[in-house]
Structures are given as structure tokens and as C-alpha cells.
Fold these 2 entries.
Entry 1:
Amino acid sequence: MPKKTVAIILIFILCFSQVAYGQEKPQDTLRISLVGDILLDRAVAQYIENNDVDYPWEKATSIFGASDLVLGNLETSVGIGGQIDINKQYTFQSKPETLKGMVNAGVHGVAIANNHILDYGQEGFVQTLNYLDAYGIKYAGGGKNIEVALKPVVWEMKGMKIGFLAFSRVIYDVSWYATEKRPGILSAYDHYTKQVSETIRKAREQVDFLIVSVHWGKELAQYPEQNEIKLGRMMIDSGADVIMGHHPHVLQGIEFYKNKPIVYSLGNFVFSSTSQLSRTSMIFNLEIGPEGILNSYVIPVKINHCQPTPVEGKEGEEVIGILNAISQQWDTRILKNGDIVGNIEYAKRKISNLSEDVPLVDSGENKSVLKDRRAEKLEKLSSFLGYDFYYDEGANMATLMKENELLTFDYGQEAIMIQREKKNILRSIFIYKPLHLMSKLFKWGFRYIDD
């Protein structure tokens, strides 16, 4: 088979597939990945014992490897011993060595403001902090005193300062609150609203982009309550750039408030999930630059045997369908490839070879990315194939043209159209028919426009 024939079939697989999670990013763009609840105890601990510390993360590590910053919620104490409260229904304590798997996977930081971090008392909590420090995992939302707990975690990368704060509206006992002389976590209950707002405002003055984690809501509830919506918006008004929520253990919706995302619940991630809903999860991704949020998208996930596993095809569409059903109340929509569109106006950035700012994403109802990422890949390789390349932004269609032959990829309508080079049996066998077969595989439309 000729080299160019092989190449065009490979391009079709890479650039025509309806799912394109985890796309390449420009060198000056930061990619941030946010995930939900992380538990390294109970059934997860058993899987680790039977395999190794990397087991829970194996299917997600490659995704995290493409991100500059990965954050989650640590839903467990970490250590050996401590004072357990026998009246608390669920208590978790993970072995210190399990943190190595988290580091190996590429997790940079965790929220510790939640209802399990002090399951083994003050002693267990201080152990948790010490082990996180030992493994180089930064944490937000708690500390050995209130002064430490109120300070944002800060990462400096690619000329930007990224801050991280965490709060909880689900706290088992008042003794868990951090004070001047007592280790503990930060509250987001109503009587702490002023402190929350002021903490966010001060943190935002120190950084270029601020992520705020909040533990809130009712377990297994798929829709946020009004007090959560009000609090999330207040946090944005105070200076947060994105809100990452958890505690319900299931996915909730995504709202863009003043063009900033509130992810009401990221669901479970590494967790001993059993029900279908609690096993349904996602990785929420942001691409940011000095201009602000350039793009956002989700990677659908199913938790199988305590392993969060990115899914595509029918399973991926099911996850996206759940998110769309909940998020439609805020005019937020997730496309099949994971891109988030709707009531959003993404930041514009300067493209070096153009004289004007070009928005990466249009908020129109029928299109998301002005130049679909798959079309960008196709353009890069078209010259190698000897084709002229044309792209129609409005229709989101890419066309490869050579002499009497046209190959048109319609990303908006998910279809391919071909004007064949007639009387060329080899091209029919090695290009047109394989493309027709793969269009069926990817469930796209297909037709010859010369028939």
C-alpha cells in the first residue's frame, strides 16, 4: 500500500474520530485537571495490597501526564494509629505508603477540608499533614493552626502563580475547626461566610488564578441545593476563578457564572464505589493563560474495581448525558468530544501569525471550537499528503483537495463526503472503502458526492 494511502487512513482515525479527549495544548498554556474524592482505605487498600500502590491510578496516569497541575479531594486520614471516635459511622485511615501511588500518578495537591480528614483525631490529622509533606503533596483547607490553614497553596509555572484554597460545609464536630492553638480545617458554614470571602479575596491578590475547593451538599444528590449555588457564586464574586465541589459522591452539574466554572460535584475518583451513579465520574480540565480561561472540557470516567478509567464511545456519551441533563439549567452543554460550550465566553489570546485576537471557542448553539482540534491536526498533515487544505469556520468543515478529488470532513454534522478520483481502482480499494468502513465504526454519515 502506498505510504500516502497509509497516512491518510491514520489521519482519518486521529482526526475524524468523534472523541478527542486530552488534546495537545500550546506551550504557553497551562492545563489544570480536577478530580473528585480520593480514598486509599477499605476496598481500595485491599486492591493495593494485592497489586501495588500504583494500581488505583494506572488508567489515569497518562491523562495526568499531559496536565501541568492535578488536584483532588483527599477523603481519608493517612497514618498509623490515633484516636478514633467510636460514635462516627464511617472512619477512614489510609496507609502512608499509599501516597506514593498518588505521587507517581502525577497528583500535585489535595483538599483536606472534609468530613474524614480528622477521623483519627488530632494525632491522626497531624500525622496526615506530616506524611503529605514527606511525599511532597501540597494540601489546602487545613493546617496545624488557623494561620497556616488560611494561607493559599501556590504553584509558580510558566510565568503564572496558581493558588489553591479549600473549605468544608460538612464537618463532623466543632473540635475539627482550626484555631490559633489547635490543628484543624476551614469551615464554609453560613456563620463563616465573611471569613471565606475575605480569605479568597486576599488569596486572589497574591496569585494570577485561584482554585477553590469546597466540601458541601448531600450524599448521592445529583442536583446542588440553593445554599450551594449561592455560596459558589459568592466565592466567584470574591475572586475565585474555578470552584471544585465534592462530597455527594456522584456527579452534579457545571455552571459558568460570570464565565467562571462552578463544578458542583466531581463525584468519586479513586474510591470503593459500588452503585452505577457513584462509579460514574469525570476529569474536569481547564486550559488557561495570562488572558484567563481559554477552554474547558471533561474526560468521562467509570470507576472499575476501584480504578478510575477514562471511557469513550457509548459509555463516554452516557457520562456526558448525565452532565448535560443536570447542567442544562445553567445553559451549559458538553459536546461528544468533551468540550464545554453554552453560556460561556472564553478568553481571547494573541495568535502569533495573526494580527488580531482570535477566540478559541464560540458560544453559539451549534459549534464549540472555531477551529476543531481534529481539523488542526488534519491541516498540519495535509501538505505531507499533497493536498490543499480549506477550513470553513462557520460550518466547522475541513476539505482536502487535489486535482479532481475532494475529501470533506464535516465535524458539525459528523459526516464525511468524498468526490472520488474516477477510474482509480487502487484509491477506491485503499482509501475510499476503508474510509467508508471507519465512518460506520465511528457512527458518522458517509456519502459520495459524485454519485
Entry 2:
Amino acid sequence: MRSMEDYPPFSKRKTSSTGLSAPSDKSGDSPEPSSAINTVPRKFTQLPPVSALRSILSTYFQHCQNQPYVYFREESFFRRLDNGELPQYLLMAMIAIAARFSTDPFFESKTLEATEAYGRTAWNEIFDKAFADDHHLLEIHAVQATNMLAVVDFTAGRHHLGWVKIGLAVRFAQSLQLNSEPRVALSYEEEDERRLTFWSVYMLDRLSSCGAFRPPAISDTDCSTLLPTDNPDVGCNTLDLRTLGEFYGDDKTDDLDSFAHTILMASALGRVERQMLQKQGCNDPYPPWDSRSDFAAIYSMLLSFEGYSKITDVMFSEAIISRYILPDGSIDHAAAGHFVFSTMLYHMNQCLLHHPFLLRKRLESCRARVPLSFLREILRRSLEHAYQLIFTLRTVQKHGMTFTSFYGYAMTVAGVICRLFAYHDDEATRNTAKQLYEYSLEFLERGQAFWGHYPGMAIALKNFNPDATSARSLVTAAHPPELSRDSNTEMIDNLLDYGWLSDPARYKSMTVDGFQISDLSPKSLHVDNVQDGTNSATHTAILNASSTTANTIEPTSRVMPSSKPLSPQRENVSSEHFDFDSHTPLPDELNMDFITHADLVPEDSWSDFIAAGKTTPFSFPPPAPSTAMWTQMME
């Protein structure tokens, strides 16, 4: 094997790969004291050996590419790697993101240490290059690496630092004019990389702005570069974000792929954030049921997207199986990434737009009498899309697909809605909502094996115990639609704030099952990669904070057809365990388009239910047929 000095990627760099200094604290982005930094293994202060480096970079493209961010094409990346054209800080940032998914022995039992050390070292180099000399030419790799490191910080509980890095990534991108088409002739590969990088920064800007006081930094009106595509061989999209609105329903939108769909739903999320989370809807002169209102315009946009994307034409789990299972039975994570993410964002946008709590706050500014039929329809949509969101993410979980950092927030949004409906007057509605709530908690428990902010979300959702009367009033259509004020109900604002959910400081004095939680960063929790098989007492306490049972799910797996049902020990409880044909009389306040309701059935009877060929008139897609049962096998 070649020495690191002889390896091509570093032959053109002024700083040798073996000469990197130990990470310092000068950038201020580390919460640990210097003594903790000195305990970082020496091997994590420099790039890994060639074999481990290529292994972790391959892991990046398997589990991080299109999840949802993408900055370059895999083939182009490895060609430039071999030609020595990539900076070390970019490679280290990629390692910091991908280490949590790695099975390489180099990172065994040390994925968190590797993430922290490589992330810190990469940022120090970017900081020096970007701010040491005003005449230093900024390069696109600085935008890419800064965006990656923002995700690392945000998900590790350092959301203030993550927020700063997101802002820097935005300014870096704008200084390179990535938000517009290049004025000079560039190769198609360069143009493609510019578009991919900008839209990844755009997505992170939108996703991190889910909260009351974090407006997006990028305005849609400033985005004139063309929309990205998942298929570079077919050419680029011919539409940009500003002109796409003119072609809703036009045949031009039929050519848009899942990556462009994800961008469109991220754009819609920005409008939903301003309307519902950042309370700009209260300034709308028209009530939300008026067709001239911003609320109606956003909902119309979502419906138009549903129409031309055909996102609801095929059952989600069926689409995954038919489109993204490779011949060897493995899942093509990268190919499925934007299809999954755009579907998730669509339902999450609907959940936030029709959230019972947020909508009631919006109605407080309305002077006109609120139509009860409007309230009933809002409640119907909120519960329906909460179900669809949970179903989508549990399908991801069931098939061993990649957990992205943002899925936890989306599941928390759905879990809050289900928690409120668990206090509904109708028994069937309560039971369904309670089960969906348990599913959301279980999903968050699974995800903490990879992302350090998932445990905090699980605890926050578990500890959300609204007053029964207040919660019931939120999910009941009645006059007047007053918003009951109590501390637990007001807690919903925090539960819908991505920054608050990712902030470990809120647990300084919290005790869970006798354990003091002082910091929910990955290092303090000792939440190791799922393949390490080790957990600390604190980690165990967080697992026990929920009443659900989490089964092991392997991040690297292949999905194979099986003629045998899954054993009780390996079967993932799924939101498919509903009897959609069970007709339940509903009270007037929920008797909207709910012709039927989803009653829970015992898990072991679900196979018989679907084998009988029953359908689902609940407006949700039916479960997969019994012949499509899948089991997970380690490669």
C-alpha cells in the first residue's frame, strides 16, 4: 500500500496529510474542554489510510448522497480524488458526516470521536482560508464543506454554531454567485456542481428555519439558477424556481424528477414556516378559508404539486419496492433519497399548515366567524397527513433505509398532532392516535443510533402531556374556536422548533428514570453507532423513557423477498397494522370525509387481513400484499 505522502489527493496540497496539527479550540465550536480534546486518538487528527479513506467515502455516497444534500456526482468525485484536486478539509467534512454509518475497522467503536475530530479539523482549515486573507479566492469546496459541518454541529446539539455555519454557507454561495446561472462558459460538469451545491445550501437553510425566530436567509426571488436533476445524463431541467409557478399542471412539469420535487417542497416549507411558525399569517387581511389568502395559496401549491408529481398515485411502500430494490436485493439508498424526502416534506408541510394548535393561533386574528366545516376539514387533513408522514418514515425504517438528520423533526411534528388527537372524544380516534404516537416515539429511539439530536426529540415528545381539556378543544370543531392557554399546550411552540429540539441546554436539570441529563450531545450520551453494540446508562435511560420497544435495525442490509412471515422477534411494528375496513360512527365534530376510520388490530392478524384482499377506503394507500413480505438480511 502506498504511503499517505504518495497518495494522489494530497500531492498538490501545501499541507501534507501527515502534517496536520491536532484540532484546536480557536474556532470556538467545541463544547469540550482542552483535556477532552487531548484524548482524541492521534489517528483522527489526520486523514485515514488509503483503504479506510476510500471505504468511508464510498459509505458517504451510499448513505449520505441525496439524503437530501448532494454536492457532486460520484464518478466525477472519485476521478478528481485520484487526480489530487480535492482539498483535505472537504474530505474531512465528508468523513465527519459519514462516520456514523461506517463499518470500516478504522472507525470501529470510535465513530463519535472521529466525527468530532475530523469536523473540528476541517472547520479550522476552512476558517483559516476564508478569513485569514481578504484576497484569498473562495472555492466551491468551502461552501460544500461548511454546509456539511453545519449539519454535524446542528445534529450534535451545537445548534447555535450550526446556525452560524449555515449562514456562512449561504454567504459563501452568494459570493460565488451560485444562486444564478454562470455568466461565463463552464463545462457541464462545473455547471452541474454549482447547481447541486447551491440547492443543497438552499435546502439546509429551509430545513433549519423550522421555528419561530429563524427566518430563511435565502429568498426564492433571488434564486435564478436552474433546478437540479437526479439524472445528469439526460441533461438539466429547463425551469428555475421563480418561473415554475407559471407552469403548474403544464406538461413541462412532467419532466421534473425527485430532486426538483424536493426543492419545490423545500420552497413550500419556507412559505409554511412564515405563515404558521413565524406568525406572518396573522398579518394576512383575508381569513384562511378565503381563496385570496396566503393560506389558500399555499394549500393550492401543495395540491398542484400532488397532482403533477403523482406522489399519491402509488402506495409509498410499493413504490420503494418496485423502483429502488436492486437485483441483488439491496436498496439503492441514493436513488431513493429524494423520492423519500420529497414525499416526507409534502406530508410535513400539510401537517404544519393544518396543525390544530398553529391554526387556532392563526384564527385568533380573524374577526369573521369561523365556519365549522372549515375546522372539520382542517382536523381531517392534520390527522390524515400525520398518519401518512408516520407511514412514510416507518416504511423507511422497515426496509433499513438511511435515516436522515431531519426525519426526527418531521416525526416529532406528526407525533405532536397524534398526541393531541389522543384526547379526542371518539374512542376509535383516540386509539388510533395513541398507537401512531407510540410509533413516532419508537422511530426516534431507532434514529438515535446515528444522530445525536434524536434522543432529545424523543424525550421532549415523551414528556409532552397536554391538559386533557385543552387538547380536546384543539381537535374539536366548535364555536367559538378559542385557544385554551396552559403551559403544556404552549409547549407545542417549542416542540415545533427544530433549534429548540436540537438544543441540549434545555435538559440541564432534567432527570429521566433517575439519571441526570446534563448534555444531550453524542459524546455525553455515548450514543455509539448501532453496530458498536454498546450503550451507556444514560443512553439506556433515554430508551426507557418511552413505553415502546425498539428492535435492532441494521443500517447496512439487503432486503430479500421471503415466503415466510417475519418472526415476532424481527418484525418491525408498522403503521400498516390498521383495519381500514372497520366502520366507526364518528361524532359530528370529526365526521368530515372520514367515511371509515382506522381501528387497531392485533399484529398477528394483519397478514390474514391483507391476504383476504381487503381495501382501504380511508383515503390512505393500502398495505403491501402478503406476497411482498420482506425480511432483512445482513450482507
